[in-house]
Design brief:
Layout lengths: L5 H14 L3 H12 L3 H29 L5 H28 L31 H23 L5 H24 L4 H5 L7 H19 L15 H20 L7 H29 L4 H15 L8 H25 L7 H19 L17 H31 L6 H6 L1 H6 L18
Helix pairs in contact: 3-4, 3-5, 3-9, 4-5, 4-6, 5-8, 6-8, 6-14, 8-13, 8-14, 9-10, 9-11, 10-11, 10-12, 11-12, 11-13, 12-13, 13-14
Length: 451
């Protein structure tokens, strides 16, 4: 090298040390050692944000539009407060119970991660995302699951009772079930249960618990005698649309990486949802003479529910079948509830309970050999996977059914479950929250007063 270039090189090197942040090279080296993938982190954090959007405002608007105008704020409040409460309890103890080291038998995690102790924001040697990134993604699932139950207890449960139920249910039912399926050494996961994004953990659990809550609370005052139509169908459509968009984070985000499986889950989610809308719409059209906007929106949610456990395990053609069958089955289930005599106000049981059950079984039928660690599903010669899925479904029924019954008995003893007749007649917006969503009803009379 000519001697004249050495001073120039020294000058360039000196300027580089001044201009480039001192930690830049160290951060790159650290990322290379840790295995952290910034694209994966960005995708999972983005997915976390849009899963939260599913609850607030998506689910809140969907449920809020389905109830009567005098109760819409109470529904929005229940969904909003669920996000607040679970955001705290998950950090304090919920995440540790769900994903902490197994405390024995694959039933529950220990409390070694309480308060996120040891759950860092930096990735370890074999981690593509930091533990806190995974934690916050799972937090959003922990928020929306109990919020789904709101639809079954709408227009009649005490606010104080719901808050107590929320804390107890997420602690003693959701977190242990999460550990069973997804936690370290969880017994359902070890058994070979396939649940990509929450068929058992989210939907069957909320649907089963919703049925117990609806029965224990009893029917709404005037149910079956007075009209209880949705007060704001545009809210329903907007809420369902937000759920459809947010579900891409729910399912595709569960790949925990920006990779091909995330793409497959994304495609399957959208495909099954479209098929379910058509399945519900044509079922309603044939049965009742006209397709409705509320029906199409509910059908979309049914498809989203059913594809959740299968999203990363099946081919797109199977997603069409899963979605179309979900639309038909959930329509029939929601139509049948009147004959069974319980008041599941917003069809949580028919959509999430039935849809989640079908989705879990369908996963065992259509799972592809190339997309699972085992032998695929029934169609690839592994009929045992369907048996495994049914065992997981029954275990979820038992935990959530018995557990919810016991929790509601405790809540009833402490706070009571239901508002009195006067409060229910006036509406929960005024009687529980001293607010009204609208100044007057469509007939011009003040909210809470009879026309």
């Amino acid at each position: 090298m000519p001697i004249g270039f050495q001073p120039v090189l020294r000058l360039v090197a000196s300027l580089a040390l001044i201009l480039i942040p001192r930690g830049a090279f160290a951060q790159e080296a650290e990322a290379a050692v840790s295995g952290l993938n910034s694209g994966d982190v960005a995708w999972v954090l983005t997915s976390s944000a849009i899963v939260l959007m599913m609850t607030i405002p998506g689910l809140a608007l969907f449920y809020g539009g389905l109830v009567r105008g005098k109760n819409v704020l109470s529904i929005l409040m229940l969904c909003f407060v669920t996000a607040a409460v679970v955001s705290v309890t998950w950090v304090l103890w919920g995440y540790s119970i769900a994903f902490g080291p197994d405390a024995g038998g694959g039933l529950i995690g220990d409390l070694s991660l309480i308060g996120l102790r040891g759950v860092g924001w930096e990735a370890g040697p074999d981690e593509n995302i930091p533990p806190q990134t995974f934690m916050v993604f799972q937090l959003m699932f922990a928020i929306i699951t109990p919020a789904l139950i709101v639809g079954a207890i709408a227009e009649r449960m005490k606010f104080s009772a719901f808050l107590l139920f929320l804390v107890l249910w997420t602690t003693f039912i959701y977190s242990p079930l999460c550990h069973w399926v997804w936690g370290p050494d969880g017994w359902l996961g070890a058994m070979g249960t396939l649940d990509f994004a929450g068929g058992t953990v989210v939907h069957i659990s909320s649907g089963t618990s919703a049925l117990v809550a609806a029965i224990m609370l009893g029917k709404r005052r005037g149910y079956g005698r007075e009209p209880m139509q949705p007060h704001n169908v545009p809210f329903v459509i907007i809420g369902a649309s937000l759920l459809w968009v947010g579900w891409f984070g729910f399912n595709a985000g569960s790949a925990l990486a920006a990779d091909g499986i995330a793409t497959l889950a994304f495609v399957n989610t959208n495909t099954a949802t479209g098929a379910a809308v058509l399945g519900w719409m044509f079922s309603e059209w044939i049965s009742r003479g006209k397709p409705t906007a509320v029906g199409a929106a509910t059908g979309a949610v049914a498809g989203l529910v059913a594809i959740t456990p299968a999203a990363g395990f099946v081919e797109p053609w199977a997603a069409i079948i899963i979605g179309a069958v979900a639309g038909f089955l959930c329509f029939k289930a929601c139509s049948f509830k009147a004959k069974l005599g319980y008041d599941d106000a917003l069809d949580v049981v028919g959509v999430h309970g039935v849809g989640g059950t079908w989705g879990a079984i369908a996963t065992g039928i259509f799972a592809s050999t190339s997309l699972t660690d085992g032998g695929g599903g029934l169609l690839t010669g592994n009929g045992g996977q369907v048996i495994t899925q049914i065992k997981a479904i029954l275990a979820t029924y038992l935990l959530c059914g018995i557990g919810s019954y016991v929790i509601l008995l405790i809540v009833k003893r402490i706070t009571g479950l239901r508002v009195d007749e006067e409060a229910e007649s006036m509406g929960l917006d005024l009687t529980l929250h001293a607010e009204a969503a609208y100044t007057t009803t469509a007939s011009g009379s003040p909210i809470g007063e009879r026309p």
